[in-house]
């Protein structure tokens, strides 16, 4: 959900009243921001750079376009010759020999143009779709590098819309722009030259109103670009609604609160807005194109009238073949000219989509490897916090930090637990160790090295995490397990599953390890999902294991089974448990009590109970008071 941390949970120590309403958290502000295309420096140059790797195919395309465009104006010139030299020669009757040659040349020109067109279409389709695919992968890759806080403040549907709707929205432009611009431009220029060669007076009549059309086209393009931005933002909202309400969790929520009608109304409202925007986008400029079409279609009639006036006044020696050829050239000018204007409009419209894509590509990850970052040199499993202070990026600047000068050391192989009131900062500790968030002060050390000096991929490869909110893909159990180790054998899967106390359960399913778990693993029980997640971590075999309230959402029976699996998983490796139920960590080597962002106590269970401090109070709240003697006798 937008504005949340930690997979939908609000970060410890953060209250809703203390948060800034940044653009990513304010839907109205975000909508207004996205509807207006962002300003991207050198946008045209960056779009052009997308095609640079395909320069060879583009050069061939340009050559084909130039040849095709040149051939397209040859038939009208041959038509003039056919009329004046073949059908109606000055010497008398038709010259069939001359006419046959001219007709053959016309057919050859049409055939060559068609064949070149097929080749050109394949090239442009290949280049356009390749660029689109590369752009989509590039955007996906960049998003993978973004820090966790970016995803906690941005709706998943909005991110999906950038990948699907925005990139898909420019597909036709990427596919058709090169050939359309070049082909139509050359055709228009060649046709105009041919018209000048045929009769310069008629050429002036045919193009006199062109500047007015160009100006009108620019105005229409600006309107369509604004509508395109609003249309894509509406698509983002629809994608977000679909992702939120049609997921398993969303459906369960809407059914539980009988909110289906409300969700349908919300979707219908945005759908109506989308329909209105789509109609507006398609209708914008239609009156303009209708007027252009009427104007260009009327030119032949005007040409006939002007030719008649010129012949009447003796101002020209124009022939019938010239008039027919001229109107044929002018007719061939209609579609290329309309095509150029439409491409110009499409380019203006797609610029908003390109700008939105580049806006995401220009995001700088808040957490990245330092230039001299190195792999973990020697993994010992020691974890240290040295006066670590941390505040979430969107917290008020004057608010109390989530962690305040926290220091502790967890020795290799030790079982350490963090307990404390809700919102104290326990989960935040688990975020800072793998560097999902960056400490704002102090140092976090892994195996004696500041995590900022380590390659994050190397760091995380030595850490396994089991959280309360287990995430399983809509795939088989085996595929979910192999997410940790793709090359794992079936025997390795079974060993990990047995260690997690889940093998017998899996074996009881008709499809065994090929059982599909369903969306987010909803075909499994909570305890089964959690044990599959533990088996997945065991397959990774990390030196440090982080357990973030891994059993807090389970019933007592499932908790005992999962806890036994966790005990096996933690054996022989440094284990850090974020615990709500204190009964799960009484055997820990050291327990750190966190309250209001500080470590206020540390020690073993017996030491902390004897001290009578915060831990003793928490433990007393969870342990039932002994029954009175009379009640026990009864």
From TrEMBL:
One of its GO terms (cellular component) is plasma membrane. Keywords: ATP-binding, Cell inner membrane, Cell membrane, Membrane, Nucleotide-binding, Transmembrane, Transmembrane helix, Transport. The chain crosses the membrane at residues 58-79, 99-122, 188-216, 287-312. Residues 383-621 form the ABC transporter domain. GO terms for molecular function: ABC-type oligopeptide transporter activity; ATP binding; ATP hydrolysis activity. CDD domains: ABC_6TM_exporter_like. The keyword Membrane applies. Pfam families: ABC_membrane, ABC_tran. It is found in: Cell inner membrane. GO terms for biological process: oligopeptide export from mitochondrion. Residues 1-35 are annotated as: Disordered. It comes from the Bacteria. InterPro entries: AAA+_ATPase, ABC1_TM_dom, ABC1_TM_sf, ABC_transporter-like_ATP-bd, ABC_transporter-like_CS, P-loop_NTPase, Type_1_exporter. Residues 1-10 have a biased composition (Gly residues). It is a multi-pass membrane protein. Residues 59-349 form the ABC transmembrane type-1 domain. Its main location: membrane. Belongs to the ABC transporter superfamily. Siderophore-Fe(3+) uptake transporter (SIUT) (TC 3.A.1.21) family. This is ABC transporter ATP-binding protein. It comes from Cryobacterium adonitolivorans. The lineage of its organism: Bacteria, Bacillati, Actinomycetota, Actinomycetes, Micrococcales.
């Amino acid at each position: 959900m937008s504005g949340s941390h930690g997979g939908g949970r609000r970060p410890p120590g953060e209250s809703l009243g203390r948060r800034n309403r940044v653009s990513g958290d304010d839907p109205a502000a975000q909508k207004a921001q996205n509807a207006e295309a962002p300003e991207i420096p050198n946008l045209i140059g960056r779009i052009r750079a997308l095609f640079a790797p395909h320069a060879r195919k583009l050069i061939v395309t340009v050559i084909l376009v130039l040849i095709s465009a040149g051939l397209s104006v040859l038939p009208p010139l041959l038509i003039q010759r056919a009329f004046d030299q073949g059908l109606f020669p000055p010497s008398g009757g038709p010259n069939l020999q001359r006419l046959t040659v001219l007709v053959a040349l016309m057919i050859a020109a049409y055939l060559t143009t068609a064949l070149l067109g097929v080749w050109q279409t394949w090239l442009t389709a290949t280049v356009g779709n390749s660029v689109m695919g590369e752009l989509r992968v590039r955007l996906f890759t960049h998003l993978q590098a973004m820090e966790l806080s970016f995803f906690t403040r941005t709706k998943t549907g909005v991110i999906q819309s950038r990948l699907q709707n925005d990139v898909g929205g420019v597909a036709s432009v990427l596919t058709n722009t090169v050939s359309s611009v070049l082909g139509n431009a050359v055709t228009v220029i060649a046709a105009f030259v041919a018209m000048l060669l045929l009769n310069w007076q008629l050429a002036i009549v045919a193009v006199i109103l062109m500047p007015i059309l160009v100006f009108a086209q620019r105005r229409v393009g600006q309107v369509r670009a604004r509508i395109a931005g609003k249309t894509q933002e509406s698509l983002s909202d629809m994608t977000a609604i679909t992702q939120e309400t049609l997921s398993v969790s969303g459906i369960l929520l809407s059914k539980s609160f009988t909110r289906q009608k409300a969700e349908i109304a919300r979707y219908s409202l945005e759908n109506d807005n989308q329909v209105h925007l789509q109609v507006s986008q398609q209708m914008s400029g239609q009156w303009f194109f209708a007027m252009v079409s009427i104007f260009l279609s009327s030119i032949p009639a005007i040409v006939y009238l002007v030719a008649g006036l010129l012949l009447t006044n003796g101002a020209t020696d124009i022939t019938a073949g010239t008039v027919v050829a001229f109107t044929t050239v002018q007719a061939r000018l209609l579609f290329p000219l309309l095509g150029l204007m439409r491409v110009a409009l499409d380019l203006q419209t797609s610029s908003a989509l390109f700008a939105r894509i580049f806006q995401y590509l220009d995001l700088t990850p808040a957490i990245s490897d330092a230039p001299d970052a190195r792999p973990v040199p020697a993994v010992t499993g020691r974890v240290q916090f040295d006066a670590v202070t941390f505040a979430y990026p969107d917290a008020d600047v004057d608010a109390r930090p989530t962690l305040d000068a926290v220091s502790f050391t967890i020795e290799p192989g030790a079982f350490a637990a963090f307990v404390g009131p809700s919102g104290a900062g326990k989960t935040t500790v688990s975020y800072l160790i793998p560097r999902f968030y960056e400490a704002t002060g102090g140092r976090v050390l892994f195996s004696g090295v500041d995590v900022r000096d380590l390659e994050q991929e190397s760091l995380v490869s030595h850490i396994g995490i089991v959280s309360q909110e287990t995430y399983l893909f809509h795939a088989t159990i085996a595929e979910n397990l192999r997410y940790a180790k793709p090359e794992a054998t079936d025997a390795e899967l079974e060993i990990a599953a047995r260690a997690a106390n889940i093998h017998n359960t899996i074996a009881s399913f008709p499809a065994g390890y090929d059982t599909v778990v369903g969306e987010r693993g909803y075909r499994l029980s909570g305890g089964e999902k959690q044990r599959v997640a533990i088996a997945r971590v065991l397959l990774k075999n990390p030196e440090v294991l982080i357990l973030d309230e891994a059993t807090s959402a389970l019933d007592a029976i499932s908790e005992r089974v999962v806890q036994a699996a966790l005990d096996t998983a933690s054996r022989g490796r440094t284990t850090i448990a974020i615990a709500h139920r204190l009964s799960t960590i009484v055997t820990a080597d050291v327990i750190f009590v966190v309250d209001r962002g500080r470590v206020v106590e540390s020690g073993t269970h017996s030491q902390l109970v004897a001290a009578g401090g915060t831990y003793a109070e928490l433990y007393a709240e969870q342990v039932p008071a002994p029954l009175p003697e009379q009640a026990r006798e009864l």
